[in-house]
Every structure is written in C-alpha cells, then in structure tokens.
Amino acid sequence: MPQKPKPNSSSNSIKKSPLINNDNNLKKNGAEEIGSENLSLAQLAGRSQLDFEIDFYGAILSRHSAYLEMLRCQVRNLLLKKRFSESLQLALKMLQLVPDSYQVHFQLMVLYSLLQQKEKAIEHFCKAVDGGFRDFSLLQKERDLAWICNDPRIRHILAEYIVN
Predict the structure, then answer these.
(1) SS (H, E, C) the chain
(2) Which residues pair with 25 in a beta bridge?
(3) What average pLDDT does range 123-137 have in this prediction?
(4) Rounded distance between C-alpha atoms, residue 46 and residue 10, angstroms
(5) CA dist., res. 150 & res. 98, Å (int)
C-alpha cells in the first residue's frame, strides 16, 4: 500500500488532488466514490465531458440533494444523454424546491413531451405560461416538441399570447 505524503513535505513540491491517490485511482470518499468505479487517469481522460459531469454532479447531489443549480445542470446533462426518466425525477425534485418556477415547469413540459406523456406536458406548459414563460420561440426551435404544439390547447395559448 503506498504511503501518503507527509503534509508540508519539502520533497513533495507538487500537490496531488484529494481525489487521486498515488496509484492514480480515485479515492473513496467515505462509503461513496466519484463515478461508478475506480478509474485510472487514462480512463478518465478517455471519457466525455458530459459523462464526467453526470458522475461528478451525481456524486455531489447524493450528498446535497437540494443544491438547485447542480440539479439544473444534471437535468440538462441527463436530457442530453437521452436519460429522460432520470432527468424527470430530478426535475420533479426541483419543482419541490421552487414550485412556482416557470423554468422548471417548462423543463417538465419538455421531459413529459419526450416521454410521450401529452397531458402532463400540456399541464406543465400551462403552468409555465401562468408563471411568466413567454419565450415561445423555444417551441419552434425544438423539433421534439412539434407534436405537442399541434394540440389545440397549446395553439390556443400561443395564439392568445402572440396576438396580444
């Protein structure tokens, strides 16, 4: 077992990351690790930034589940990886923390739409609009939302706000 360098040792002028031990493997932090397995630096270097962020944010959220900005980042990252169900669970956690946020309701509309849950998607779209959402151009930019935008209820809301 490698020995840990002594603090303030003059022979060790380069400080090592607290997450990396002398074998270049991730150290355990209590009972948990960053990531799902012990990875060497070479393995870490071969991972995508998105995969790294998902593991990193996941580890933080496992300890601090009400960290709103970290939840926002993780919801986005999981969405990009098409892990919609996991993203939805975190977005629902965000909704508990900020129930009146039109951004969270819009995010839920997107996720429910991607999961083909039309009624829930429309419900959260209405809540987003009631809460102040007005950037309707986002609906046109997202091809995945086109099917829901054809619903008469959504078209009625869009006509009401775009005309007025």
Answers:
(1) CCCCCCCCCCCCCCCCCCCECCCCEECCECCECCCCCCCEHHHHHCCCHHHHHHHHHHHHHHHCCCCHHHHHHHHHHHHHCCCHHHHHHHHHHHHHHCCCCHHHHHHHHHHHHHCCCHHHHHHHHHHHHHHCCCCCHHHHHCHHHHHHHCCHHHHHHHHHHHHC
(2) 40
(3) 94
(4) 33
(5) 29
Q: Which of 120, 108, 96, 113 is nearest to 149 (CA)?
A: 113
Residue of 99, 54, 57, 63 lying closest to 81 (CA atoms)? 54
Tell me the C-alpha distance between 49 and 54, whole Å. Answer: 9
What's the chain's average pLDDT?
80
Q: Give the pTM.
A: 0.71
In angstroms, the first-to-last Cα distance of the chain is: 71
Cα–Cα nearest to 67, from 83, 90, 49: 90
